[in-house]
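To: structure subgroup
Subject: Chain for Friday's discussion

All,

I'm putting the inputs and outputs inline so they're searchable in the archive.
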Amino acid sequence: SLGRLLADSGGDYSDAEITVEGVPVPVHRCILASRSEVFAKVFSRENGGSEKEGKPRYCLSDLLPFGHVGYEAFVVFLGFVYTAKLKAFPVEVSSCVHNVCGHEACRPAIDFALELTCASSVFGMPELVSVLQRQLTDFVVKALADDVIPILVVAFHCQLSQLIDQCIERVAHSDLDSISLEKRLPDEVVEKIKILRRNSQHYCDPNMPIVDPLREKRIRRIHKALDSDDVELMKLLLTESDVTLDEANALHYAAAYCDPKVVTEVLGLGLADVNLRDSRGFTVLHIAVMRKEPSIIILLLSNGARASEPTLEGESAVSICRRLTRPKDYHTKTERGQEANKDRICIDVLERE
């Protein structure tokens, strides 16, 4: 079968290479072009790729208008292109290292399916998109609300209207705040979520606190100052209003979206509670762990953040981190002089606390 051509490690019959995450993948242009009009157009361009040993070489990232597709996902995608059969997902990149997770909807499982969806959509394989869309629909029901966001982003770019609607419905009835939605989603999607929330009985509850527009505006100005790495402006805004750093969740915001040096400066003011919980019950450390930035995690811990503090669902910081980390990233040994994987560093730092 054609699948044996991919299994040939020597790539003796290949006539091109597509580089993915620095790894050259031998391919056969006649097969890809016959299965995908997009590949046919790519290969028909003059000087479309660089030459190596007489073979055109293409970089996958240059062919993707959106999203990310890793090496393992691309290999599985090619397997479908060659054989019209979808292989089982590699466990090392489609599961997490949490010891009690069933991997039905953990973040690595979702991310791998999304990588395949991106490749299938971009290169025009609707039959595979359809299979993956059913799996993603199942994820929307089972996954944490935060993990529905990347599904919604990919669905938007792939124009999967049914999946978009399901994601919007789930997110609209979640406790995700407007600021995080605006940072992570396209404007038109955010607007649909806001409309659905306004029309929902849940968000029309008379017992819910009324949002003060002026106070909300002041908090957003503080966040914009942080986005600009302008802590001095943030200090000025604080003196001109009755909003405190904690009321603006400024440290949470900085840990989620800003450069580590901004987090350092905000902590240096001595005005923020490093163990403060936001409206969803997350501490600043929980937010930093979701970002998987070791320098911020170490900074928070050295300033009194408690690693043992659980979320409202009972998850510790290290538990969150393990649910976000793939076995490949956790177990891969690094060579001397090579930078260690950030996911592994985060877990090691937290487990030492």
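Points worth raising on Friday:
The mean pLDDT is 91.
Strands lie at 16-20, 23-27, 50-52, 55-59.

D.
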